[in-house]
């Protein structure tokens, strides 16, 4: 259940961040509502995952790392942003860092 909550928190954060780009500086009311509701849902789900004894360092690393990587890929695939070799390498380093943190948390 904990990991499902964290996955949902990541998905809603990625949705909200994607909507942030589409909101035109929060000028578009529909996308702005998606931003606000998405972030509210994301933080609520993350808080519930932490309540179920998930370590905050591990949870936040996964939440922010996966979210960052997903947004970079979504930006390249759907929002006309570039994905250079350096960006791809950075995404790989983020994922590697999350994996190391996760493995180091297991006792």
UniProtKB/TrEMBL annotation:
A Pfam family that the UniProt record links to this protein: Multi_Drug_Res
Classification via SUPFAM superfamilies: Multidrug resistance efflux transporter EmrE
Residues spanning the membrane: 26-46, 58-79, 85-103
Predominant localisation class: membrane
Cleaved signal peptide residues: none
Keywords noted in UniProt: Cell membrane, Membrane, Transmembrane, Transmembrane helix, Transport
Localisation per UniProt entry: Cell membrane
GO cellular component: plasma membrane
GO molecular function: transmembrane transporter activity
Membrane topology annotation: Multi-pass membrane protein
Family: Belongs to the drug/metabolite transporter (DMT) superfamily. Small multidrug resistance (SMR) (TC 2.A.7.1) family.
Listed name of the protein: Small multidrug resistance pump
UniProt source species: Thermocatellispora tengchongensis
């Amino acid at each position: 259940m904990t990991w499902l909550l964290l996955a949902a928190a990541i998905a809603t954060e990625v949705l909200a961040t994607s909507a942030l780009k589409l909101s035109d500086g929060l000028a578009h009311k529909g996308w702005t509502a998606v931003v606000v509701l998405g972030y509210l849902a994301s933080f609520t789900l993350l808080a519930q995952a932490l309540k179920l004894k998930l370590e905050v360092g591990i949870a936040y690393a996964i939440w922010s790392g996966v979210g960052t990587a997903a947004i970079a890929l979504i930006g390249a695939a759907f929002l006309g942003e570039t994905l250079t070799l350096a960006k791809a390498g950075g995404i790989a380093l983020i994922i590697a860092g999350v994996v190391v943190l996760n493995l180091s948390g297991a006792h």
